[in-house]
Design a protein that fits this description.
With 73 residues, the protein is mainly beta. The chain is 0% helix and 51% strand. It contains no helices and 7 strands. The strands form 2 sheets. Strands 5-4-3-2-6 form a 5-stranded antiparallel β-sheet, with no helix packed on it. The radius of gyration is 12 Å and the shape is globular.
Length: 73
C-alpha cells in the first residue's frame, strides 16, 4: 500500500534508526537530488537535520504494525 507523504509525516531509514519528521521536499545535496529533509532529536536531545532520498525511507505507521511504501504526489 503506497502513501503520499507531506510535511509532518513520520519516517525512518529502512536500515533502522530514530523516528524522524519530514519538514520539506526539494533538491538538496550533491547534484541537487530530490530528497526529503528530515528532523529528529538525537540521543543527547539535540535537534538534528539531514536529507534522504525516497529509496532510503519508510513511513512509520501510527500503530507501528507495518511499514508503508512512500509515494510522492
Amino acid at each position: 500500500m503506497a502513501q503520499t507523504i507531506d510535511d509532518g509525516t513520520k519516517v525512518r531509514l529502512k536500515s533502522g534508526g530514530p523516528t524522524m519528521t519530514v519538514v520539506d521536499f526539494g533538491q538538496y545535496g550533491y547534484g541537487s537530488r530530490e530528497s526529503y529533509k528530515c528532523r529528529w532529536f538525537d540521543d543527547k536531545h539535540k535537534l538534528t537535520e539531514a536529507t534522504f532520498t525516497e529509496a532510503e525511507l519508510e513511513v512509520v505507521p501510527p500503530n507501528g504494525s507495518m511499514s508503508i511504501k512512500l509515494e510522492r504526489a
